[in-house]
Amino acid sequence: MREGTRKLLAACKREVPSLEAAKSLLTSHARVLTYMAELQRRKTEECLDKLSVDEDGRGHLKPCLAKVSISDIRIPLMWKNADHIMNKGDHNRYAVFCLLKVGTEIYDTELHMNIDRTACDVTFEEVFTFDKVKPDFNFILEVYSYNLHKDLTIASTPQKNPQKTQLHRIGQKD
What we know:
Largest sheet: 5 strands, antiparallel
Shape: globular
Number of strands: 7
Order of helices and strands: HHEHEEEEEE
Structural class: alpha+beta
């Protein structure tokens, strides 16, 4: 799947299909890395379970697993006063999506397009359910963005030299 998505990404000439392909590639790459880490963790746990047996020959009790649901994700946006309140500054528009991770389960939200300085927040209304969650779980929410238009006009025109689609994790420096 990753190889097919790479080929699709290389062949894309338009921005929206290119973003969707980059999002799919990022999500599948995250899943592969997570599955590899989980396989390693299970092998390590299997070896440790063989060594950890009580004096009377019984194993340890394992904690119960839970089901965790996440819904209505709302991400407030912070703009400079000149951009948001005074309606001055740049006219950049962004595409935004999130990756949600618990254990080996990874979900991605829909891709929100054309987020600009008029938006106060980004809301994802999907419901995500994680099954068989351990008591000591870690929840990771990664927010990715892509600057759609880097021009200074409201009515944007297509770029003559399209750039490579590169998604940026929020908080990540270039």
